[in-house]
Amino acid sequence: MSWTLLLIAGLMEIGWAVGLKYTEGFTKLWPSVGTLVSMVLSVVLLGIAMKTLPAGTSYAVWTGIGTVGTAVLGMVLLGESVSVPRIACVLLILCGVAGLKYFD
Question: Which residues belong to the signal peptide in this entry (predicted)?
């Protein structure tokens, strides 16, 4: 259950990271509200997951999910550059996250 909560927390982190772009500096009401809700849920779920998972592993997996998801959505939704080196780096992060889960 803790790993599921951690995964959801990571997805919420993607939500607020991408959401920040749409808030336009917190000048847009509804994107700002959604972003803030995602921030709170992300941290709360991370905290709950950390009750039974190691802190270092939890934090690294949480940020890894957020980093990979935000980078991919940046390329897909926000028109950020797509290149072989960028994709390779994202895959390396994904391998690190999988390794932390596997070796826990």
Answer: none
Q: Which residues contact 84 (CB under 8 A, 6 or more apart)?
A: none
- Contact residues for 16 (Cβ-Cβ < 8 A; gap 6+): 35, 36, 38, 39, 42
pTM of the complete model: 0.89
Backbone angles phi, psi at 6, to 5 degrees: -65, -40
Q: Report the alpha-carbon distance of residue 24 to residue 47 in Å, rounded.
A: 28
CA atoms lying within 13 Å on the CB side of residue 26? 4
Phi-psi region of 83 (alpha: psi -120 to 50; beta: other; left: phi over 0): beta
First to last CA, the chain: 14
